[in-house]
Structures are given as C-alpha cells and as structure tokens.
C-alpha cells in the first residue's frame, strides 16, 4: 500500500474513533469535513495570452502533513453544542419533546413538568416552534419557544418568547414579548386546477392568495374567468420571530401558520391579458389600497365579493328554489362556505338592520351612498349593530345556515333604489378610488422598485424565496 493511501486510512480510522466517543448527531458533519481534507486540487490559469512564452521555474517545497489526531483532540477540547428546532405536538410530554430534539436530560424534563410557565405554554399545545440547545452529552442548556402574542391587541404584530435556560444545576424560565419583523419574499406559479392549488405548489400562503384575489377582483372574476395556464407573480411580506419564519398552528390563534403579512405587489396573466398592481399607503391619510402601476386605483366603491374567497353555489338568475321546489328568480348570489367563515361588508355605509328576519335568518342590511344597499343573510353570528357606521372590508358577521337554508352559505344581495341588481356587475361598474395628487411622486418611486421585484418574482418559477 502506498504511503498516501496509508495516511488516508490512518486519518479515517482516527476520525471513526472520534465519532465513537461522541453522539452521531454531533459528529457526522465533523467527520465528513475532516475526510474532505485528504485531497486538494489546484489549477493555474494563464494571466495573459502569451503566458506560455514566459520563463518557467519549478519549485518543490515539502509541506508538513496534517496530524488528524491532533485536530480531533483539539475539537474534543471544545464544548460542542447541538441546536435543533421542533414544533410542539398536542400529544407531547416534556420527555418526548426533548427526545425528538435530540436531548436526553431528566432534570430538564422534570423542570418543564413542574414550572408553571412551561406547563401552561408547552404541554398539550400544538404548533409552537421550539429551539433547543444541548451539549455533546444531550444535556439541555437552553430552550426557546415562540408563539403568537397573548394580548389580543398585539396579535399579528408581536410574538411571545418563552425562554428556559440552565443556571448552574437548576433552570429558570422567563416570558417576553417582541415585535414581529417583516421579510420580503417572492413567488410565482401557474394555474392548473385552482388558485389555491397553484399557490400551494409555489409555497405561497393562503392569506396572500386571498389578498391577490382581492387585488384583481375588479379585473378578473376568479369564480368564472380563471383559465388553465394563467400565470401570476407576487411580492409579499413574511413575518418572522427572531429571524425565524412563523410556522405555528392557527388553532392557537394569532397570525396564520405561514406568517404572511401584506401582499406588496402582484402580476396576473389571465387569458393572455396582463394585470399588475401594487399596495400603496398614503402617508398623509394613513390609508392604503391596491393601485395599478399607472396610478389607477384597484379599489372600487364596492368589493366583488363579501368573502375573501369562496365558491358560488347559485348566481343571479332563475333557479329551482331548494325549499319551495318551484322556479323563481334568485335575486342575489349564494356563496358556499363553512359555518364560521368571516363575512365582510363590500362598501362603506351604515347598518340599517342587524338581527332576525324570517327566511333570511340572521341578517345584516347596510345602506350605502347613492340609494344603494346590500344584504347578508343566513349568518351564524352578527358582529355589528343597527346604526353603526362600517368601512369597506370590515367584518360584519360569520357564515351560517339560519332561516331557510339547506346548508351553510351566505346569501348576498345588492339593491339600487330598492331594485335587485347583479352584485358582480355592480362591483365592476362602481367608481374607482382616486390616488391623491400629493402622493403621486412617492407612488412613482414605489412603482419603480416594485417593477424590479416583480421581475425577480416571475423568475422564481413556482417557488417562494426570501429576498
């Protein structure tokens, strides 16, 4: 056997011996790295076209061989630490959580069982992201769990951090609240079956898909006009806690599991026609809205739908009445959705009725400017009162099946001077909100930045990525 091969074999044997003295979870990367030190290749490229004509001189220098055993002993002298991230499960015990994170520490498990803070936050609660740091023997040094802020006014803007750390031979726990940080992300995709299937494939959160449907609701009827092969690109905010993406479960409340924030900009190619828009907030009024890149507001006086995204089960047309079993004109639009789905007002106005109304069940009626009014029926819950002033997009109730209803859905009507009209046609024909003159300079600067971001997003080809 050649001397080079003998040295390689000796180095690998020493590395294996080192691995045997430490947990595999800690040493796999170390052994791989040390094994890669054995052979290194070098290349020299000509510095100029006539480099071959330059005089050559060969220099031979004996380099000392690397003593792998000395390197391993040096590594052994350091305190190696293992850091793992795990999401809690509803079936977790302190022992199972620590075991899944690669730590074996009875003292830490006992503290998590007894400490009031740790018990309240970790035991039986799914979806909390836990980062655990342990030494080479599996002894826990620190555990940090992040979850939605516990105060309702901080939901969506802050997170709470539970910290459990070793102090000598014992542990201590503490609870702090900190603001979420926004990170810009890009994504793109194409329609095969549905909008949400396409955004799922592109790792784009459902909340962003819903905002995109809102952004282009005046241009595209996502219930009827979506085509296979349609393409979209988005720029959006992802909320992070201590630099980590939010991945907690929505059953615990707070922000969505994706940690999605605001949709910043989007582009949608529908049936060969391209639509682009950007979110812009007026610094003077503090109000924000979606605008096309030429400054035309995407927001109209009325939204196209009283829900972020849903399935139309019955349109504005003649139909067989499901209860009366006779052909009748359906004077509204029915949206199929699970009970409890949020219902919003499609425009600014004043609540004229909020209560029970025979076949409509729980119903809200809102009076808008210009002799217009809207009706929201079969609600399971009403969140507004008669006489209350409401703004476009405000939550007014939740989907149900009260009154004459065969299943959970929202019956929505639009009336102009008492006459029933097709809500979708009214939304498309309603007047647009105008960009204030004082904001045009800032808006143009925003658009210039957004165009570059949308180009990056378009190149993502079905994946989302941090900026």
Automatic annotation (TrEMBL):
Which InterPro entries does the annotation name?
Cell_wall_metabolism_enzyme, Dup_hybrid_motif, M23ase_b-sheet_dom
**Which cofactor is essential here?**
Zn(2+)
**Where do the M23ase beta-sheet core domain residues begin and end?**
329-423
- Naturally occurring in which organism (per UniProt): Roseateles paludis
List the coiled-coil residues. Answer: none
Short name of any one Pfam family annotated for the protein? Peptidase_M23
Q: Which ranges does the record mark as transmembrane? A: none
Keyword set, alphabetical order = Hydrolase, Metal-binding, Metalloprotease, Protease, Zinc
CDD domains in the cross-refs:
M23_peptidase (cd12797)
Q: Would you tell me the protein name for this molecule? A: Peptidoglycan DD-metalloendopeptidase family protein
Q: What is the lineage of its organism?
A: Bacteria, Pseudomonadati, Pseudomonadota, Betaproteobacteria, Burkholderiales
The domain of life for this entry's organism is Bacteria
């Amino acid at each position: 056997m050649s001397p080079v091969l003998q040295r390689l074999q000796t180095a690998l044997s020493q590395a294996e011996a080192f691995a045997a003295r430490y947990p595999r979870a800690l040493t796999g990367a170390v052994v791989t790295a040390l094994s890669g030190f054995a052979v290194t290749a070098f290349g020299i490229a000509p510095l100029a076209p006539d480099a071959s004509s330059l005089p050559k001189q060969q220099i031979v220098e004996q380099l000392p061989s690397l003593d792998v055993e000395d390197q391993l002993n040096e590594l052994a002298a350091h305190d190696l630490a293992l850091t793992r991230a795990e999401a809690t499960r509803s079936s977790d015990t302190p022992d199972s959580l620590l075991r899944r994170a690669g730590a074996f520490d009875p003292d830490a498990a006992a503290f998590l069982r007894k400490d009031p803070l740790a018990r309240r936050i970790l035991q039986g609660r799914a979806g909390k992201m836990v980062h655990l740091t342990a030494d080479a023997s599996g002894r826990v040094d620190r555990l940090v769990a992040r979850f939605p802020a516990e105060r309702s006014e901080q939901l969506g803007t802050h997170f709470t951090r539970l910290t459990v750390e070793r102090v000598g031979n014992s542990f201590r726990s503490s609870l702090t609240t900190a603001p979420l940080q926004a990170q810009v992300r890009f994504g793109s995709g194409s329609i095969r079956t549905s909008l949400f299937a396409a955004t799922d494939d592109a790792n784009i959160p459902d909340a962003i898909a819903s905002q995109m449907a809102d952004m282009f609701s005046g241009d595209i009827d996502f219930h009827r006009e979506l085509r296979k092969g349609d393409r979209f690109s988005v720029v959006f905010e992802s909320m992070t806690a201590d630099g980590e993406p939010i991945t907690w479960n929505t059953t615990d409340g707070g922000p969505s599991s994706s940690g999605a924030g605001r949709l910043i900009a989007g582009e949608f190619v529908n049936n060969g026609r391209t639509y682009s828009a950007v979110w812009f907030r007026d610094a003077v009024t503090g109000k924000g809205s979606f605008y096309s890149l030429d400054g035309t507001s995407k927001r109209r006086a009325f939204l196209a739908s009283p829900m972020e995204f849903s399935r139309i089960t019955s349109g504005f047309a003649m139909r067989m009445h499901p209860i009366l079993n006779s052909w009748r004109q359906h004077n509204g639009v029915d949206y199929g959705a699970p009970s409890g789905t949020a219902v919003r007002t499609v425009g600014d106005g004043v609540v004229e009725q909020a209560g029970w109304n025979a076949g409509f069940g729980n119903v809200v009626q809102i009076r808008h400017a210009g002799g217009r009014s809207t009706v929201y029926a079969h609600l399971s819950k009403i969140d507004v009162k008669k006489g209350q002033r409401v703004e476009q997009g405000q939550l007014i109730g939740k989907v149900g099946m009260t009154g004459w209803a065969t299943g959970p859905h929202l019956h929505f009507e639009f009336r102009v001077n008492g006459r029933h009209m097709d809500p979708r046609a009214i939304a498309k024909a309603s007047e647009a909100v105008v960009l204030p003159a004082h904001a045009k300079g800032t808006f143009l600067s925003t658009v210039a930045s957004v165009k570059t971001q949308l180009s990056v997003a378009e190149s993502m080809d079905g994946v989302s990525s941090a900026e």
